[in-house]
């Protein structure tokens, strides 16, 4: 928001974008793809991380991890549903990958494992997906209907990829959706910021964890 020309922001607001959010009575948290395949091991540079896993985001992931951990703790404290997604690499052998990325690291050991900071607990759902959106050909929608979820909070990786695809589909299915900006990360800061702006304008409300906690 600090980079955009004020005149453009004013135009968006006159058109009815950038305003308002609603956290419903029965929200659920979607933690999108926060596995080692998208983080890389702790302490690696970005170049080192992508040598380990071509899809890794490196330092940006680990800088964001404490916020993701606190967000998960918030939902656990409320007893609200939490869904963790990760790539179904076995299914992708038959369906094709989620992007045009040609890297081979997705089959490497540890790719789909969760860092301890955001690891699912027993009884929390780990949803495998073959494409970018957590909704695409998965049982996510009937689960949300069954649980009477009325709004979604989304965090994870990458802001410009699987997070955005999931948020667009959530909006399409009629869910009021909140993206927690400091609990999302991307391999590109520019792409992270641009996609947060677009999601906030069109498909979701973008809030910090602090703003969400105060809501």
How would you sum up this structure, described in words?
The protein has 215 residues and is α/β, with parallel strands linked by helices. It is built from 9 helices and 6 strands. It has helices at residues 6-14, 36-39, 46-52, 59-78, 89-95, 140-146, 159-172, 189-202, 209-213, and strands spanning 27-32, 82-87, 125-129, 151-157, 176-185, 205-207. A 6-stranded parallel beta sheet has the order 3-2-1-4-5-6. This is Isochorismatase family protein.
What descriptive keywords fit this protein?
215 residues, alpha/beta, Rossmann fold, 6 strands, 40% helix, globular
In summary, what is this structure?
With 215 residues, the protein is α/β, with parallel strands linked by helices. 40% of the residues lie in helices and 17% in strands.
């Amino acid at each position: 928001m600090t980079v955009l020309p004020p005149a453009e922001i004013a135009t968006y607001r006159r058109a009815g974008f950038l305003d308002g959010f609603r956290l419903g009575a029965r929200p659920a948290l979607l933690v999108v793809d926060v596995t080692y395949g998208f983080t890389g091991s702790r302490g690696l540079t970005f170049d080192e991380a992508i040598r380990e896993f071509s899809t890794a985001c490196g330092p940006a992931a680990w800088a964001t991890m404490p916020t993701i951990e606190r967000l998960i703790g918030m939902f656990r404290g409320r007893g609200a549903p939490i869904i963790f997604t990760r790539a179904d690499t076995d299914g992708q052998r038959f369906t094709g990958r989620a992007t045009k990325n040609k890297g081979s690291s997705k089959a490497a050991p540890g790719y789909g494992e969760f860092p301890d900071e955001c690891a699912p607990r027993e009884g929390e759902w780990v949803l495998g997906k073959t494409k970018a959106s957590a909704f695409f050909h998965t049982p996510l929608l009937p689960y949300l209907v069954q649980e009477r979820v009325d709004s979604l909070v989304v965090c994870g990786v990458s802001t410009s990829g699987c997070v955005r695809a999931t948020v667009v589909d959530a909006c399409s299915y009629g869910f009021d959706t909140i993206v927690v900006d400091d609990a999302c990360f991307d391999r590109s800061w520019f792409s992270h910021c641009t996609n947060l702006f677009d999601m906030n304008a069109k498909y979701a409300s973008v809030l910090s964890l602090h703003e969400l906690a105060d809501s």
